[in-house]
Amino acid sequence: MLEIKDLHKRFGDTVALDGVSLSAEAGEVVGFVGANGAGKTTTMRIAMGVLAADSGQIVYDGAPLGVEQRRRFGYMPSERGLYPKMKTGEQVAYFGELHGMTKAEAKRSAAELLEQLSLTERIGDFVQDLSLGNQQRVQLAVSLVHDPEVLILDEPFSGLDPIAVDVMGTALRDRAAAGAPVIFSSHQLDLIERLCDSVVIIGNGRIIASGPVDELKAKEVKQLRISVETGEDLTARFSGTVTRDGDDYLIEDGDDQEALRIAAAAGRVTRFAYDQPTIAEIFREAVTR
Amino acid sequence: MTQNEPSKMRGLMLVAGREIRVRGLSKSNVISLVVTVVIVGILAALPSLIGGDDSDTRVGLSGDTAPAMQAQLEAMGGFDITVFDTADEAERAVEDETVDAAVADGSLFSLDGIGNEDETKIDAAWQTASVQTNLSDAGLSDQQIGEALTVQPLEFVTLESEGGVSSTLDYFTGLIISIIMFMMLMTPVQYIAMGVVEEKSSRIVEILLTSLKPWQLLGGKVIGLGVISLVNLIAMVAVGLGVSAATGMLSDLPPGTAGAAVSSIGWWLIAFALFGTLAGGVGSLVSRQEESGSVLTPLIMSLTLSYLGAIFLLNAPTSTFAEVLSIVPPFSGIAMPTRMAITEVPAWQIGLSALLLALAAAGALALGSQLYKRSVLYTGSRMKISEALRRAA
């Protein structure tokens, strides 16, 4: 389990992080959401040891995170970077070695990953000769080559085509299924909703909402929606604030069980559910609150 | 999968290894090395090419002095001797070009001269042979003649004069050492700065720093480029000396050349540590390749000044200026090996100079790595050195 505890960071007069805490269990995919400048990148950089926090702590499996453990993490920074004049296969293997693999292991792992990413044919090409999309795949290979125990990815989906998004999404879920905590940030909230077990929302250097996706949605429940096939207008019979939308009745602050009885007596109930907000709606709500 | 705990040295060596693979084995470096080596080879072969063929000069001899002269010339070497019965025959042989020159009737015959060196030798042989013949005619025994002719060879003593240079060859040795030192510092220093900026501008440094410490990243780069330069240097020296040896020029070089060349490598190592780490440090202050020139200017200037100082020093190796320049770092890095090549330098000056340069290199190492550590992740406009040092790492 990776825990980020009470991080504080200032850049000059600007407070970048003001007590940021979040955590990812083994096998959990955590989506990290926030507007530009909210503190996502700073948090991830501190977690990866690239930046020092003014105060706060990174704890891994119950103990402060050390350099050697961090070497087994996989990281993708928001600003992508590769050596342009180095061959693709050589480059991926080099990063494997930097993460502590032997030369042979790194080479084998690089070849396997590049095959999964359909880059086998480009293994001997310079990175600068690859298309942007392929460079992104190489970047992903660089962060996965050493079979990382933890993944911290800053905007891993930005700039990817739909196929690459699927490849990346599958890779993240696979790592999580293998037991790795995964934290990634994204502005693509539909992806977060689809891939993540939990979501953390950050705004102005503070965590403004966090928790499992289902719980967050349940907490932010908007209204009860009942669809009934009946000729009768039931608006006046439901309690609470009722809005009619064709066969649908939207009920707020009413008694849901009583409403169900009334609807069932009036006709065939085709739908009875609380409308759940999307992550995007929760995010907007949280940020504007 | 096994995850080895990589030692600190392994990280350093991985970085150095990458530099050597990517930069040292790059097409451009290999081509430039081959071209340089060919040029060095041609330069080394040039004296013997211009000097013409090295075959023995064919000399015809006749007359009473012929046997004595033959003995003298053979002892000197470089002559192919034919003895003729008459002076006419000898003279005809010159006309027919079966010999290059002939000594007959007290004259040296040749078609259009045979070069100063051979003329001097033949003249010396003629004088000795004539004296021998005269003494023999006067009735002295061979032993008496031998004793009479045995003289202590002249001892050559050079009185060093202020600003004087002992010989042209020494001068050129010094010149070549200063040029090579300059080149061997200038090129890798620029590559180090470029490499640092490349990693910064491509943002790859952020990934690198998750598994490497800044000192490993900077140190590996400096070591890698140092090794490439050293290999280039050794290739040049080996080809230069090899060609000289093959053409027989090696023995003509001053006796101190080998020593000067070897000690130059030591001076180069210290000076490279100084300039290389500083280049990495100042390189990290900028985020774009276009800006690297501006931060490198002070380093390039001091390298150029060291070189120009060393050239000036060649003409006055014992002056106060030369002494100061070859002791004060960073100038001493080029000036001292240059000075050592052309003149005798007191041991205390060499020791002091090496100590000061090593101290300066240690200081540069600390300053360069601090600058690097503090500014390598900073992106944006150029950072001032003072600002970088104020920043928390």
From TrEMBL, chain A:
Claim: Transport is one of the keywords in the record: yes
InterPro entries noted in UniProt: AAA+_ATPase (IPR003593), ABC_transporter-like_ATP-bd (IPR003439), ABC_transporter-like_CS (IPR017871), ABC_transporter_ATP-binding (IPR050763), P-loop_NTPase (IPR027417)
Chief location category: membrane
Cellular component annotations (GO), alphabetically ordered: plasma membrane
GO molecular-function term, one example from the UniProt record: ATP binding
Domain of life: Bacteria
Topological relation to the membrane, as annotated: Peripheral membrane protein
Domain ABC transporter positions: 2-229
Compartments in which it is found: Cell membrane
One Pfam family linked to the record: ABC_tran
GO BP terms, alphabetized: response to antibiotic
Keywords, ordered alphabetically: Antibiotic resistance, ATP-binding, Nucleotide-binding, Transport
Sequence similarity: Belongs to the ABC transporter superfamily.
UniProt name for this protein: ABC-2 type transport system ATP-binding protein
Originating species: Glycomyces sambucus
TrEMBL record, chain B:
Subcellular location: Cell membrane
InterPro entries referenced in this protein's UniProt entry, alphabetically: ABC-2_transporter_component, ABC2_TM
Keywords assigned by UniProt, alphabetized: Cell membrane, Membrane, Transmembrane, Transmembrane helix
Transmembrane segments: 30-50, 171-193, 222-245, 265-286, 293-314, 347-367
Entry GO MF terms: ABC-type transporter activity
Pfam families according to UniProt: ABC2_membrane_3
GO cellular component: plasma membrane
UniProt topology in membrane: Multi-pass membrane protein
Major site of localization recorded for this protein: membrane
Residue ranges occupied by any ABC-2 type transporter transmembrane domain in the UniProt entry: 31-368
Highest taxon above the source species: Bacteria
Protein name in UniProt: ABC-2 type transport system permease protein
Species per Swiss-Prot/TrEMBL record: Glycomyces sambucus
